[in-house]
């Protein structure tokens, strides 16, 4: 799975090329407040776009998960 660009000035892309699994995502700030979330948003055939241009600059966590796996990416929005 790829999450890019990092740092970003607005748009984040998540690619999971070739995977047959579908993942959800949740973006939180450093205090744990949920900024955005979507179920069944990440799959192996399309790149998921997330627009962070309306959120304050700072550090955010992207939690990517399904019933089988979970991982967290740290993103800097400048």
| Beta-strand percent range | over 45%
Quaternary form = single chain
Question: Globular, elongated, flat, extended or rod-shaped: what is the shape?
Answer: globular
Strand elements, count: 7
Widest beta sheet: strand line-up: 4-3-6-7
Task: Reconstruct the topology from this structure.
Layout: E1 2-4, E2 11-15, E3 23-29, E4 34-42, E5 48-51, E6 58-65, E7 70-77
How does this structure look, described?
With 78 residues, this protein is mainly β. 0% of the residues lie in helices and 56% in strands. It contains no helices and seven strands. It has strands spanning 2-4, 11-15, 23-29, 34-42, 48-51, 58-65, 70-77. The protein has a four-stranded antiparallel beta sheet with strand order 4-3-6-7, with no helix packed on it. A three-stranded antiparallel beta sheet has the order 1-2-5, with no helix packed on it. A hairpin with a 6-residue loop joins strand 1 (2-4) and strand 2 (11-15). The protein is globular. The model has no long low-confidence stretch (mean pLDDT 95).
Outline of the structure:
With 78 residues, this protein is mainly β. The protein has no helices and seven strands. It has strands at 2-4, 11-15, 23-29, 34-42, 48-51, 58-65, 70-77.
List keywords for this structure.
78 residues, 4-stranded antiparallel beta sheet, 3-stranded antiparallel beta sheet, globular
